[in-house]
Design goal:
- Strands 1-4-3-2 form a four-stranded mixed beta sheet, with helices on one face.
- The protein contains one helix and four strands.
- It is of the alpha+beta class and 52 residues long.
- It has a single domain, classed as 2,3-Dihydroxybiphenyl 1,2-Dioxygenase, domain 1.
């Protein structure tokens, strides 16, 4: 069983944050994305939740 790490980070503007991290090469899991949050994939077991 592998450990998964989820880090929650508050952001003021979700769309700008997604654009910024996309330009840095990160991808997002659309299954956990809506108008108030998104799940950024850092590695196979590390994720960052960007939350408004």
């Amino acid at each position: 069983m592998s450990t998964q790490i989820f880090v929650n980070l508050p952001v003021k503007n979700l769309n700008q944050s997604i654009e910024f991290f996309t330009q840095l090469g990160f991808e997002f899991n659309s299954q956990f994305t809506d108008e108030t949050a998104t799940c950024m994939i850092v590695s196979e077991n590390i994720f960052v939740m960007l939350l408004t």
